[in-house]
């Protein structure tokens, strides 16, 4: 038995056609520019210059700067969704805390690999337009659903106590988001140790500040 994050879909394979490769190149260039300058300060001309393309070529793929941003947002969230797998309650499954560590580790690894995209979301989260906010909110809602069901599964097998599931799910989500934000904004003094961070997040949320016995 497993609990899967809602709306999880397998990632589409990246196209290998010249058009697909050019579109990917534009997105890569835009991600770098957005992460350095922010969405509002970035001009289409900056993306064009970074990608090394003509203005007309840009408009063959995207109608606006906002369309590029939405494409980047959807791309990162698809990768994050793909990193979240169900909790296995089978008799031969690993301990639930180990499974949760692996899930958090996959989420953080995605952020590390796609730091430019993650930086965009963190910096621009408060100023996204309605469509982008809805996409982001739906993602966090599905992640909260996964956490909520994981807590209930833990309660059903006696590894999690009688706690408020809704509040606890928000607290767990908050710790993951905070670590993500501090990393992409450069608040960590060095590169994040993903495995160590994942274990710390899960340990804190399952055991609080009490000594682990």
Tell me what you see in this structure.
Helix 4 (65-82) packs antiparallel against helix 5. The protein has 213 residues and is mainly alpha-helical. The protein contains nine helices and no strands. The protein starts with 17 loop residues before the first helix and ends in a 6-residue tail after the last helix. It has helices spanning 18-37, 44-51, 55-61, 65-82, 96-113, 115-124, 130-156, 165-184, 194-207. The chain is 67% helix and 0% strand.
Offer a quick outline of the entry.
This protein is mainly alpha-helical. It has helices spanning 18-37, 44-51, 55-61, 65-82, 96-113, 115-124, 130-156, 165-184, 194-207. Residues 1-13 have low confidence and may be disordered.
Q: What's the N-to-C terminus distance?
A: 28 Å
CA gyration radius, whole angstroms: 19 Å
Order of helices and strands: HHHHHHHHH
Count, helices: 9
Oligomer: single chain
Poorly predicted runs: 1-13
Count of DSSP strands: 0
Category from helices, strands and their pairing: mainly alpha
**What fraction of residues sit in β-strands?**
under 5%
> Major β-sheet, in short?
none
Mean pLDDT: 83
Shape label: elongated
Helix content: 55-70%
Offer a few descriptive terms.
213 residues, mainly alpha, 67% helix, elongated, disordered N terminus
